[in-house]
Amino acid sequence: MNIPLSQPDITEAEIEAVVAVLRSSRLSIGPKQEEFEHLLATDIGVPHAVAVSSGTAGLHLCIRALGIGKEDEVIVPSFAFVSAANAIRYEGATPVFVDIEPATLNMDPARIEEALTPRTRAILAVHTFGCPADMDAILDIARRHRLLVIEDCCEAIGAEYRGQRVGSFGDAAVFAFYPNKQITMGEGGVVVTRNADMARDIRALRNQGRYESDEWYQHKVLGYNYRLSEMSCALGCVQMQRIDDILARREAVALKYHENLRGQKGVIVPPTQLDQKRISWFVYVIRLASGFQQADRDAIVQSLGADGISCGRYFAPIHKQPAYQQFAALRSLPVTESLSTRTVALPFFNRITDSEIEYVCSSLVHLATTASLEQ
Ligand SMILES: *Cc1c(COP(=O)(O)O)cnc(C)c1O
């Protein structure tokens, strides 16, 4: 057995679409980018989508286009992918880390207000593992304190909050398409927004600061090369056309894990249903019971690896990373620090079979039971 943690789902349709681009000789800034942006904007239900080279590039451009910089602080969870906080730092702003809710692993809105200072400019809400953050509470705090809201939807394409796609709530939102995401472009990302001016600025920033009305060598602002190739966009178009099937399949995999692991000793399963929220399954992350230490978790992950089962230890808190020494939380983040030592991401991809899921579950349950007997 050799079961990877994740695997892209590429069919002949994707292969043909990419080959067709290669035969066209239009390899960048072409019709596939436009088509992908249109598909994305329509799916999320916002007027503007701008394709960029990665989710990280998209987050960076949101921070930049919203004028967040030195002296500013941005509220962000520490239990997240490092990219969210990195994007804040690229513009010299300061990430201010906030703790999470134990049930959903999302930023806890009850912890936001105590983290606000006169310098706070924005909340970067991450829909962690595809589970929608509590947007009503976040938007309410933002309104009362005049803060911007950026949604990090890099793990959450297709997730819904109160029947509306995530990515349609904030001032801007970012999706990502690395091969481990629900759908992939190889590499790639997209910024969506209702704000036409912001969309225009982001289009310029991704292309060396050149606005669409400008001549080719005219650069109004300091920009970047955050463009995406037509091959990536063609791949993304086919994946977007298949998104309903992909999300349904991923939900079926999650429910199969749930069925196998619910009620097992030592293993705590994630919620599969939440009021007013539709989860888009990015990964399936269990946590070990509270008696387990980080060393126990790491030993279990290693034993699973020896059995041919690749697991992830999502997430090591950002504020504990060496690159974040100078931002080490001023306030403590007890939930983040306790849960992050016990989470295990199980193999999760569209084509995983029922027997592979059963093998993962029986191995995990065996290891968790043995370890808890030793405690
Ligand atoms: C994947 C991811 C990103 C960044 O996406 P890249 O395309 O890899 O740059 C940002 N935030 C979160 C929460 C992610 O999971």
Automatic annotation (TrEMBL):
Q: Which GO terms describe its molecular function?
A: pyridoxal phosphate binding; transaminase activity
Tell me which species this is from: Alloacidobacterium dinghuense
Q: Locate the N6-(pyridoxal phosphate)lysine modifications and list their residues.
A: 181
GO BP annotations, alphabetical order: polysaccharide biosynthetic process
Family named by the database record: Belongs to the DegT/DnrJ/EryC1 family.
Indicate what this protein is called per its UniProt record.
DegT/DnrJ/EryC1/StrS family aminotransferase
Report the domain of life of the source organism.
Bacteria
Keywords in alphabetical order: Aminotransferase, Pyridoxal phosphate, Transferase
Q: Which residues form the active site?
A: 181 (proton acceptor)
